[in-house]
Each structure stands twice: as structure tokens, then as C-alpha cells.
Amino acid sequence: MTTDTAPEQPGPTLRQKIVLAAAGLMEESGLEAVSTRAVAARAGVPTPSIFRIFGDKDGLLEEVAEHGFRRYLAVKAELFGGDDPVQALRDAWDLHIRFGLEHPAYYSLVYGQVRPGHVPQAGRRAADDLRRMITRVAAAGRLRMSVERATEVMHSVGVGTILTLISLPDEVRDLKTADTAREMVINTLALSPADGGDDGGAVPAHTTASSAMALLAALDQDGTATLSRAERPLLREWLNRLADAADEGD
User: Fold this and answer.
1) How far is the C-alpha of 118 from the C-alpha of 27, rounded, in Å?
2) What pLDDT is recorded for position 241?
3) Integer Cα distance of 194 and 16 in angstroms
4) Rounded Cα–Cα distance for residues 1 and 32 (Å)
5) Would you give the distance in Å from CA 145 to the centre of its chain?
6) CA–CA distance, 91 with 114 (Å, rounded to integer)
7) SS3 74
8) Among 82, 83, 86, which Cα is nearest to 195's?
9) Residue 6, class by beta-carbon neighbours within 10 Å (0-12 exposed, 13-18 middle, 19+ buried)?
10) CA 180 to centroid of chain Cα atoms
């Protein structure tokens, strides 16, 4: 006689247990509560295990940030499939604001703990996704400046907006601030379809910045071997300078 049983589900690894313990402490009591001793006690492991697995507390916090940002980055990736790259930027902004306000502990862990020259991996991945989204705007001939400058501007304003809203008491927090900042940024970075061509990607001949960035995006996409390895970075520098110089002259 045999009895069918459901396969046993594997439990979390020791690494995952420690990350979940640290994440739980942070969500409940803030980053200040995440000491290695408290995490070890909650996970039921010896404190030295944390240092053996993660190297130090900063290594642990890097993985806690990855844990918190994982779902946000997955949802953000779905925005790459839209037809209108400028609308996708608006949607990405709204998603970013919503995530920051709903998960202030994770957001502050990545963006509120400033260390010169260091950005947590989750923050770098978010910035890389933003850069790719702005590259789509460039490919459509609708970007007013270089991709790099546009990425820095939108990222900086977005982070500043969320950290400002997080710092305010709920009763005085005005979410229209984020909407106003979004439209100011989008209007600064992107041309409207009437000015920059239609949604099919037509390049406006009269706009130096958008034409330069559309050309750069096309070169990156087709992988042409016409230019040498020395010529490609030089052309990239020229096109970026043209785009940013044109923006400064507006």
C-alpha cells in the first residue's frame, strides 16, 4: 500500500533567513534596530555567522536592499514594453514615488544613507533601468539633452522628491508635489510629439539635441562595425556635447 504525499518544500537557506530577519527588524523598527546582534537573535544563528556569510554589516544591508527592491524592479521592467517612451517615463516616476512612500525603510536604506562614491547595487540597477528608458526616448527623437544628463536630472529630482515627502508628517504631505515635479522634469527632458516627431520615432531635423541622441541610440542598437574602436567613443563624446550644448542654448 502506498500513500501519495506532497513533495517537501525546501526552507529558506541560512543566508535568506538572516536577510529576512534583518528586513523584518528594519520594517518594524527602522534601520537603527538592525544591529548584527539583534539580527542574529531573530534569525536564531550565532552572530559570527553574519560576518562569515556577508563579510560585514554593510554586506548584509546590501542584500536587504536587494530583497526590498526586487519586486519594484520587476514591475518597472514591465514598463519597457509600452509604445510611448515618454509615457513610460511618467509611469516609472509614479511607480518610483509609490514605492518610496510605501516602503520608506528600504528606500532610505538605498538613497538616504549617503556615502561618497558608493551607491548600493539596488540603486545602481534602478538607475540603469532609468537610463535604458531614457535611451528609448532618445531613439524616438524626443530627448532634449544627452542620455547621461537626462538620467542624472530625473534620478536626482525623483530621489529628492521622495526623501522630502518621507520626512514630512502624513497630515502635511502633499502628493501633488510629486506630480508637479514629474511634469517639470518630463517637460525639461522630452519634446512633445508635435515638436519631436510622432510616436513612430521620426527624428525632428530642426532639433540638434534630439537628432544627436537619436543617432547615438541607433549606433548603439545596430552594432555597426563601420567605426573603429577608437572612433566610436569619440563620436559618442561629440554627440553628447552637441546634445547638452543645444539644451543649454534653449
Assistant:
1) 23
2) 82
3) 51
4) 57
5) 19
6) 27
7) helix
8) 86
9) exposed
10) 20
143 DSSP β-pair partners: 190
Q: How confident is the model at residue 4, as a pLDDT?
A: 42
Q: Is the pTM of this model over 0.85?
A: no
Question: Which amino acid type is present at position 101?
Answer: L
Spatial CB neighbours of 116, under 8 Å, sequence gap ≥ 6: none
Q: Which amino acid is at 163?
A: L
Instruction: Supply 48's cell numbers.
Output: 559570527
> Does residue 203 register a pLDDT over 50?
no
- Which residues are CB-neighbours of 128 under 8 A, at least 6 positions away? none
For 182-187, the CB contacts below 8 A with 24+ separation are 182/90, 182/93, 182/94, 182/97, 184/157, 185/93, 185/153, 185/154, 185/157, 185/158, 186/86, 186/89, 186/90, 186/93
CA distance to 79, 139, 141, 157, per residue, from 85 (Å): 9, 9, 11, 19
User: Using one digit for the tens of pLDDT, what is the confidence trace for 108-165?
Assistant: 999 988 777 777 888 888 999 999 999 999 988 899 889 999 999 999 999 999 999 9
For residue 97, give the C-alpha cell: 514615488
Note the pLDDT of residue 244: 78
For the residues 174-182, what does the mean pLDDT come to? Answer: 94
